[in-house]
Amino acid sequence: MDFGVYDYEIELPGLINPDAYAEREPWKIHTVDPFQYFPKEISAALLAKTIRAVEPRAGKIDYDVAGTLSGNWFEQDTNWYDGINQRKYWEGHLSIAPHQIDPSLWRIGIGFLDVDDNNFIIAGEDDPVRVGTSSGPVTYELHRYMVYIPEKPEKQWWRESYEGEVFGVKVHSDLVGTVLLDLSEQGQLKVEVFLGQSSGEVKEFTEKARIYQR
């Protein structure tokens, strides 16, 4: 089941270009915490089953920070959120944001990767929210991960009942590849993914680099 609550008197402050969502999902920019709309006893029961422990408990989708890597990006000339290929409208999407369970970890979602898992934990020396136009090109290594219960690592929590248990994120040590990023003064983001390569092997962009905006 998937549900959400939208308050059209509220517009999310952390989306730099709200118009980017207007064609496909105009309601997205009005997404609010659903738990506040339930009676207190029902809200408490729902929160007890919510695996996110940090505030806001309902999570957050607006991580855009102007002049930094943080937030949502769209590849140039791919019609923003709506995309070009309607069967894979997310192909031009890119997201760099804290993980919803453990915000100390940053995650990247790369829409054009033709893999089942196209989002990864990123590992590098630079905090994405502090990388600006003067930082120059930066690299992050890509790692797969899983959400799990540290005290019961074998439990298949997505199939079994749970309540009140603490969830964490296990980052796998195997390297998937490296992403090279460069934020220009025009607010454009140059991106290239090098699968199977470490950050030490990545020196510069090639003709396969893509340009994103927001």
Key features of this structure:
two-stranded antiparallel ribbon, mainly beta, 4% helix, globular, eight-stranded antiparallel barrel, 1 helix, single chain, 214 residues
How do you describe this structure in short?
The protein has 214 residues and is mostly beta strands. The protein has one helix spanning 40-48; strands at 5-6, 31-32, 71-75, 93-98, 106-110, 119-123, 138-148, 168-183, 189-195, 210-213. It has an 8-stranded antiparallel barrel with strand order 3-4-5-6-7-8-9-10. A two-stranded antiparallel sheet has the order 1-2.
Set out the fold topology.
Layout: E1 5-6, E2 31-32, H1 40-48, E3 71-75, E4 93-98, E5 106-110, E6 119-123, E7 138-148, E8 168-183, E9 189-195, E10 210-213
Tell me what you see in this structure:
The protein is mostly beta strands. The protein has one domain (5-213). The chain has one helix and ten strands, in the order ββαββββββββ. It has one helix spanning 40-48; strands at 5-6, 31-32, 71-75, 93-98, 106-110, 119-123, 138-148, 168-183, 189-195, 210-213. The protein is globular and about 55 Å long. The two termini are 30 Å apart. The mean pLDDT is 95.
User: What's the helix count?
Assistant: 1
If strands are numbered along the chain, what order do they take across the biggest sheet? 3-4-5-6-7-8-9-10
Overall geometric form: globular
What ranges have pLDDT less than 50 throughout 5 or more consecutive residues? none
What's the alpha carbon Rg, rounded to whole Å?
18 Å
